[in-house]
Amino acid sequence: MSHYAEFLSAAADCLGSKGFTRDADVMEPWLTDWRGRFTGKALGMASPASVEEVSAFVRLCADYDIPIVPQGGNSGMSGGATPDRSGKAIILSLRRMNAITRFDEQAREVTCQAGVILQTLHEAAEEKQLRFPLTLGGKGSATIGGLISTNAGGTQVLRHGSMRAQVLGLQAVLADGSVFDTLTPLKKDNRGFDLKQLLIGSEGTLGIVTAATLRLIPAVADRAVLWAGVASILDARKLFLHANKVAGEALEGFEVLPRHSLEAVLDYAPEARAPLQDNHEWHCLIELTADAATAERLQDLAMNLLETAFEEGLVEDATIAANETQAEDFWAIREDISPAERAIGPAVQHDISVPVSKMAAFVAEAVPLVEKRYPGTVGVAFGHLGDGNVHYHVLAPQGAEPGAWERTKGKEISAFVYKLVTDWGGSISAEHGIGQLKIHELDHLADPVSLKMMRAVKQALDPEQHLNPGKLVWLADKG
Amino acid sequence: MSHYAEFLSAAADCLGSKGFTRDADVMEPWLTDWRGRFTGKALGMASPASVEEVSAFVRLCADYDIPIVPQGGNSGMSGGATPDRSGKAIILSLRRMNAITRFDEQAREVTCQAGVILQTLHEAAEEKQLRFPLTLGGKGSATIGGLISTNAGGTQVLRHGSMRAQVLGLQAVLADGSVFDTLTPLKKDNRGFDLKQLLIGSEGTLGIVTAATLRLIPAVADRAVLWAGVASILDARKLFLHANKVAGEALEGFEVLPRHSLEAVLDYAPEARAPLQDNHEWHCLIELTADAATAERLQDLAMNLLETAFEEGLVEDATIAANETQAEDFWAIREDISPAERAIGPAVQHDISVPVSKMAAFVAEAVPLVEKRYPGTVGVAFGHLGDGNVHYHVLAPQGAEPGAWERTKGKEISAFVYKLVTDWGGSISAEHGIGQLKIHELDHLADPVSLKMMRAVKQALDPEQHLNPGKLVWLADKG
């Protein structure tokens, strides 16, 4: 038997018929990332049912020198879960491992296998009057393992932090099949290096996340959603600082969008209504929340925030959502920006960050440079002002050919944007990760010391490059 | 010139007379850790004045194969900053680098060089109505660099997290002299591995912390300090859960102490007064705090907590400090426990943690096992119930010989305690780190997978073992 035939036979033995397939139809949906940017081939798809099976299978792959591409919900933004075109790698799907194995209401902890879907976790927490404080658009498909491997963000990072901050304990299978297990969390533990955080956000290149213990917080007992119109992004920044001061820890979200984005949504979504009557250059969507212990004063706090903002001349106009329906409507506008802007025509998108205190200045100063340099383009920046995280779309000039424009001019514009953001001390990936989408850019633009450290760590923990090769970081000799 | 003579001459050239000494009197205080457990020798002591000097000096040490022991305030608890007895290592003191280089009130960020003393940072923050939310007994000597390298804890971890959670950006010199620099913090940055967290808590074995950007929070506008007597540690746990529920994010500290510790303090500190009239087996010290945004309701919240705790039969007796003086007095009792227990006679101390939900059971069940196995000893457990962190002292039987008892019987007892805590899924070092004090224990008791990962990472980033050798983790071939 050939090397591959031997491996395939051993893989089928290891995982059984439910756990291993080479059926082209079954594999097909998992060979392309959901945005359709990357399509690869795979030698097969493994779907182990337990950490023991993952461990045995990874050991088998190590023995046969077979690369592994771990995959959760396949809803990542950077092609991190899509195999390359060689067809030599195995997709390792964690989707069958979808049990919530422990729920400790009193300690506010939940232990999930990697394949648990975010929405499922939200619902399980809500049933117990608790809440998992991270959410994002892909919650119906994104899995806990994928969210951890990409250190996912979302709209609640301002107050609650990204995925990194939610993980109390972790279980992962390393390149040699051994199992790193800290699922029983210790709040304080100073026994050396923070291996848990090293694995989180490593995009499956250092280990395959198989389970995690996550923190929960008390359910939201009340919320207030405000919409404000301001004259400039710099005024939005002032309003943010004011909100931070007045609302303190109740401030859960602070999103900004330009006039262009609001108008795009109003065109795109027939049911969308403008929250304010007049036109404003910039809009702020602000959410305050409270749990049962602090709910009593939340509406007063929101009113106070609004009144003082008017008094201090920080807003042109503003309103508080009158009820939950209106609150949902406000948020729907924010969530529709991406599809609405995309519906206008070809564009290149950038998920970038700069130091929080510089974001307003970056949008005001740096973004127009792009429009000037590439005449006819329109720059639209929106997102998480409180996190310094800008979703920055550059729309193609009218008449540009979809597909072709992105591949040529769009690529050039992105390179310019990434250079610009790096010069501002920012990041070319605020929340979407590197994957295969930005591995070239990271290789060129990353701080050489950080890159050298990453390569050394990758070399130390996965010397044969079996774990998600071609993602995030190359070793020096393959770069 | 000999190898060493050449190195010493180059070192003096590199750092100048202020920056390099071999004077025995000058070095003497820095060769013994402050608890007097470890004394070493050094080839010399370097005191660079800038990150450039640290970098150049580390490169020089690499060239001459000279090991480096980084040192801050020399107030660590595990001998992590004390050189070994070979006299071949250089102490690298960061104390001259003691400037606060940037203070951004609006962004609530401060950038400090490694040698800034914690107390100095507290005062700088207070001047601007802000607060650095980590404090501990050694604040008058502990430096930011040392606190970061040991991931220091303290009494505010419950709400604000350990040092790890305070560091927004980091600068460190690596083994080859290159400078890792993320001092300009990005709230969101998904460009690969979390190198910052890898360096934090690595006890100078992966890099030498030279500066950091730290988060600040609004100053405390009001606080309420409560003292409660309860019948058992299990009741203390119930009260903790209740306090958590009622006070939510206002709950900043929850400490427990047994009757033995209170009585020891009353004997030891002439000015100490018992907060409650009757005797109780266990005592809880609870602190609620609020910033300006939430101060208005804090005293009501504290009163509500107290009343409902009485109603639900959670306390035998309880009181709220009537004023700041009384609040300070309550905390003084907590802070005097260690010296008071030490004054009784020989003892071995353990800084251990178990899962938060198991701490009460551990103290109730596991701790008496030690007294039973070692007749005449008295076990005293106190500390951070909300963090699962127990300071666990075992007092020698009456008449035991100081010094000799700790070295013989005490050592045996500690081994038993560490085995016990490991069996409970806990940590042999909750907040004090490993250093040279527990390197043997970690080598024996750590999860083999974690240990293997740590060795691989150490090998990758400091292959010649120049950075703080003999601390935290040995490489396999030296262990």
UniProtKB/TrEMBL annotation, chains A, B:
Keyword Flavoprotein included in the entry's annotation: yes
One Pfam family this sequence matches: FAD_binding_4
SUPFAM superfamilies according to UniProt: FAD-binding/transporter-associated domain-like (SSF56176), FAD-linked oxidases, C-terminal domain (SSF55103)
Gene3D superfamilies, per database record: 3.30.465.10, 3.30.70.2190, 3.30.70.2740, Uridine Diphospho-n-acetylenolpyruvylglucosamine Reductase, domain 2, Vanillyl-alcohol Oxidase, Chain A, domain 4
Cofactor(s), names only, from the UniProt record: FAD
Coiled-coil regions listed: none
Top-level taxon of the source organism: Bacteria
A single BP term in Gene Ontology: respiratory electron transport chain
FAD-binding PCMH-type domain sequence ranges: 38-219
Positions of transmembrane segments: none
GO MF terms held by the record: catalytic activity; FAD binding
Keyword vocabulary terms for this entry: FAD, Flavoprotein
Keyword Flavoprotein: yes
UniProt similarity note: Belongs to the FAD-binding oxidoreductase/transferase type 4 family.
Protein name (record): FAD-binding oxidoreductase
Organism: Altericroceibacterium spongiae
